[in-house]
């Protein structure tokens, strides 16, 4: 019975009934000097990158990708036949995020940075297993070997994946998964889909996520994906993910936020898809076909 | 560098299918002259990219952040589609000792936590102020939770709503916050809002605001926006073709850049790097700027239409509900110039409320000149702007200089807000707010 009070408060806030004149939320402090140092470093890196732009091609690429022309751009409209469900789900996710997910992630962000980095690296390292399998299925064996190398190095020298030693020896993280494999095999993104708790996706990416989870469950590294501890680890993984995403539902204040996110998400996905193929995307016969279909 | 991402992200999303504007019964205010910096590539570039990181003023290591969500007693019933904007959200960074409070207001369409506000918050907090950052009265969250009309853009009405909201916020600040003095400032339209709030306070004395600073303010909201409408028409035209062409070019350019790298994800770093190669010419920068302003105004237009019942895009008898498709409304609004908001929503609404007013009087009331006497005569008003600011024409810049005299600093370069946060701008800003400026009253 003691849990009833907080539970009712949570339910009320999820259905939007929480009411008091002022609500205060202490956020993790801003760190302007450190953020600025990162921006400065990035600006330097971009300047260097621009200087060597001429050499900026895929390493080992035997054939240059055929450039896209403006006519290859997908339609301005997005394929969203499940719009009504998606919009309601977007609202549910926004409320869940505001009431539960974000407060927990903000609390987590108060832990010392090295601890959070260790957790982040740990889950990143576990996902290398899925990357190795999917790079292989995509026929990108070099990348698969690199992911395998990262997993071996970080699991041993990196103390079970807590430290990303591989990155320091110029083997940066480049995760992939079933969504990208399906794209490589030629599957279109499909209908836009807002997944409960997780957010923007498409049918293909949703299937991909299920595939990624299924792979992890089947491989079951160190028996982490079965039994009671798998729940705890799953929650920690979710909190780590949220704490590393700088997004706030409805910070835009706009009733068109759903439309904006949908547009950007699907265009981003389509550009990433185009990056998987050397040839131009197949010409769409119907110019009115919405993006993603 | 955040600005690049914003510019690019916005540029990608300017997906407008413009529709030819209907003949309006009320004439939109004319843009008096070309903007001072419109033909200047440096001004355009600065406006899009903002202050280069190496020129940013020293910033503090840590700034505490308290988020406050307020339900204001005069709020109007919240339309279902705006369910998330029920409360006014502001941010407070409080010193742990008695200190002056700086209230900072965002520019057109901005919430209370924009990248530009973050910079101002950091330098003001570093200089010893409590800092309260607020959304623009044109931000949908403000329109829904704090506006008494729902029809944003009227300097005086917005100023009154802001003034009332600030009083509520201050009465609900945590008890440990001890305030010794209150100053108010804002950038772009927020600068004009700040000055109007101070002028209202000078009559009502509920807060006793000491100094007000305007950073890159418009002299006339409607002529500034009219100029941006014109820029939009020049760069993108009035029909669908220009918008679609721009989107397609941008998409192909980004996709080709992406395919030439070995990245596995199109992330922020990629966009930051791509911005410089995608935006190069006057026309491209102008297009990005025109589109940025246009998108900020879509929400103002939608909310104004909904609240006033004008029926331009929203059927007042059947307002959209959660779960309803907004595609068609968004598509139509994307193509509407701001002048149409003025002629079909704003002017009819305010003329109904002020039956003895004329359109010309409405326009005049929305010029800074309406508080010109205070700006000229009161030594506690200050301004900073750039000689190549895109939202001013030569006559307006001249008016600002004549009005403020020694209390304005005009920088040679920076376009619109392209030098916000740089060392000189920050040093001058702190001198102005601290009463140390060379033109300060003794």
Labels describing this entry:
heterodimer, A: about 290 residues, mainly alpha, 10 helices, B: about 450 residues, alpha/beta, eight-stranded mixed sheet, 16 helices, about 45% helix, globular, disordered N terminus
Would you mind describing this structure in some detail?
- The complex is a heterodimer of chains A (293) and B (442).
- Helices cover 54% and strands 6% of the residues of chain A.
- Chain A is mostly helical.
- In chain A, strands 2-3 form a two-stranded antiparallel sheet.
- In chain A, a hairpin with a 3-residue loop joins strand 2 and strand 3 (199-202).
- The termini of chain A are far apart.
- Chain B is an alpha/beta fold.
- Chain B contains 16 helices and 8 strands.
- Chain B has an 8-stranded mixed sheet with strand order 1-2-4-3-5-6-7-8, sandwiched between helices.
- In chain B, helix 15 links the parallel strand 7 and strand 8 (408-411).
- Chain B is globular and about 55 Å long.
- Strand 1 of chain A pairs antiparallel with strand 1 (63-70) of chain B.
Structural class by SSE content of chain A: mainly alpha
| Mean pLDDT across every amino acid position of chain B | 88
Task: Please write the string of helix (H) and strand (E) elements of chain A.
Answer: HEHHHHHHEEHHH
Rounded Rg of chain B: 21 Å
Strands in their spatial order, largest beta sheet of chain B: 1-2-4-3-5-6-7-8
Count of helix runs of chain A: 10
Strand content of chain A: 5-15%
Q: Identify low-pLDDT runs of chain A.
A: 14-18
Beta-strand percent range of chain B: 5-15%
Q: First CA to last CA of chain A: what distance?
A: 50 Å
């Amino acid at each position: 019975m003691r849990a009833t009070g907080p539970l009712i408060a949570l339910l009320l806030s999820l259905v939007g009934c929480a009411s008091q004149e002022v609500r205060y939320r202490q956020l993790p402090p801003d760190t302007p000097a450190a953020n600025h140092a990162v921006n400065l470093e990035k600006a330097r890196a971009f300047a260097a990158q621009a200087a060597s732009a001429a050499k900026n091609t895929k390493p080992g690429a035997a054939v240059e990708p055929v450039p896209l022309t403006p006519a290859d751009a997908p339609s301005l409209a997005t394929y969203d036949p499940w719009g009504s469900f998606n919009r309601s789900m977007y609202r549910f996710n926004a409320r869940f995020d505001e009431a539960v997910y974000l407060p927990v992630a903000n609390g987590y962000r108060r832990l010392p940075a090295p601890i959070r980095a260790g957790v982040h690296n740990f889950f990143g390292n576990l996902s290398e297993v899925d990357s190795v399998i999917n790079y292989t299925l995509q026929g990108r064996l070099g990348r698969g070997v690199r992911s395998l190398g990262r997993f071996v190095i970080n699991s041993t020298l990196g103390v079970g994946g807590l430290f990303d030693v591989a990155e320091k020896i110029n083997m940066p993280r480049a995760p992939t998964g079933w969504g990208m494999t399906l794209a490589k095999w030629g599957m279109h993104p499909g209908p836009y889909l807002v997944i409960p708790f997780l957010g923007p996706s498409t049918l293909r990416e949703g299937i991909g996520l299920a595939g990624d989870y299924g792979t992890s469950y089947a491989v079951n590294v160190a028996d982490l994906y079965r039994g009671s501890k798998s729940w705890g680890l799953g929650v920690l993984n979710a909190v780590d993910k949220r704490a590393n995403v700088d997004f706030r539902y409805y910070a835009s204040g706009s009733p068109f936020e759903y439309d904006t996110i949908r547009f950007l998400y699907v265009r981003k996905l389509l550009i990433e898809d185009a990056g998987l193929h050397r040839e131009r995307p197949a010409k769409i016969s119907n110019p009115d076909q919405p993006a993603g279909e | 560098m955040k600005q690049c991402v914003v510019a690019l992200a916005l540029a990608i999303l300017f997906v407008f299918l413009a529709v030819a504007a209907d003949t309006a019964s009320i004439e939109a205010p004319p843009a008096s002259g070309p903007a001072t910096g419109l033909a200047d590539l440096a001004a355009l570039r600065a406006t899009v990219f903002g202050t280069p990181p190496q020129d940013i003023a020293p910033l503090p290591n840590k700034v505490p952040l308290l988020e406050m969500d307020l339900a204001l007693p005069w709020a109007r019933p919240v339309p279902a589609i705006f369910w998330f904007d029920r409360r006014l959200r502001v941010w407070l960074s409080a010193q742990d000792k008695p200190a002056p409070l700086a209230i900072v207001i965002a520019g057109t369409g901005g919430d209370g936590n924009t990248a530009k506000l973050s910079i101002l918050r950091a330098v003001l907090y570093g200089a010893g102020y409590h800092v309260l950052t607020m959304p623009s009265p044109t931000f949908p969250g403000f329109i829904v939770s704090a506006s008494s009309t729902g029809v944003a853009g009227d300097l005086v009405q917005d100023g009154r709503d802001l003034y009332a909201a600030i009083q509520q916020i201050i009465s609900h600040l945590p008890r440990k916050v001890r305030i010794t003095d209150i100053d108010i400032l804002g950038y772009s339209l927020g600068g004009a809002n700040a000055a109007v709030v101070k002028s209202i306070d000078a009559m009502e004395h509920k807060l006793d605001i000491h100094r007000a600073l305007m950073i890159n303010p418009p002299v006339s909201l409607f002529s500034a926006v009219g100029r941006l409408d014109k820029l939009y028409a020049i760069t993108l035209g009035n029909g669908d073709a220009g918008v679609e062409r721009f989107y397609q070019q941008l998409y192909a350019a980004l996709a080709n850049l992406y395919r030439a790298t070995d990245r596995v994800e199109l992330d922020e770093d990629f966009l930051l790097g791509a911005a410089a190669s995608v935006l190069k010419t006057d026309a491209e920068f102008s297009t990005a700027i025109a589109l940025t302003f246009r998108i900020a105004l879509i929400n103002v237009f939608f909310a104004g239409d909904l609240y006033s019942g004008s029926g331009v895009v929203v059927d007042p008898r059947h307002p959209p509900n959660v779960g309803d498709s907004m595609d068609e409304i968004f598509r139509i609004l994307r193509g509407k110039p701001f002048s149409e908001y003025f002629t079909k929503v704003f002017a009819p609404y305010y003329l109904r409320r002020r039956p003895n007013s004329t359109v010309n009087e409405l326009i005049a009331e929305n010029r800074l000149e309406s508080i010109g006497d205070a700006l000229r005569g009161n030594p506690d008003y200050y301004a900073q702007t750039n000689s190549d600011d895109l939202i001013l024409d030569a006559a307006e810049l001249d008016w600002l200089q004549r009005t403020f005299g020694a209390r304005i600093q005009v920088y040679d370069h920076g376009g619109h807000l392209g030098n916000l946060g740089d060392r000189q701008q920050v040093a001058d800003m702190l001198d102005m707010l601290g009463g140390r400026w060379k033109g300060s009253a003794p």
